[in-house]
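hi! just following up on the protien thing from before. the input was this:
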Amino acid sequence: MVLTDNYTLVPAANKDIQEIKAVIFSVLNEYGLKEDEGSTDSDLSDIQTNYMDNNGFFGKIMTENKLVGTVGLLKLNEDTCELRKMYLLREHRGKGLGKILMDKIIKIAKEKKYRKIELETASVLKEAIKLYEKYGFREMEKLNLAKRCDKAYILELK
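and the predicted 3d structure came back as:
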């Protein structure tokens, strides 16, 4: 899927896991957040089963044959999916990619017949939170947030 003249979104596969982890963990570390392969990030151990085979999606944002970002939709139940692992390397932020990516991922969620998208995030990810709120995500109460997260949001799809 073309995002811009320079960027594409392509489905990920298990062969991409190490490269995907490198990008995600790099962004987390940049913001002082810890990777957690035993819990929050365990979904990355098998992208095919956890995402692709379970009415979800996991994509790689590519430019010039390099992985520069990720985004996932993980099935929570028949009506609801969770936006996960939406990260871009620093040098690729501030170019409008977040907005383009959000448009694509919402479209994918609708195509998969989801009615709601939830997400968990950390307050230090201020730019991401602004984007979520711009798209109509509302803060919600959620028990059992991931260790590195302190906020949860929900978007009702129309």
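The chain has one domain: 8-156.
The longest strand covers residues 66-75.
cheers
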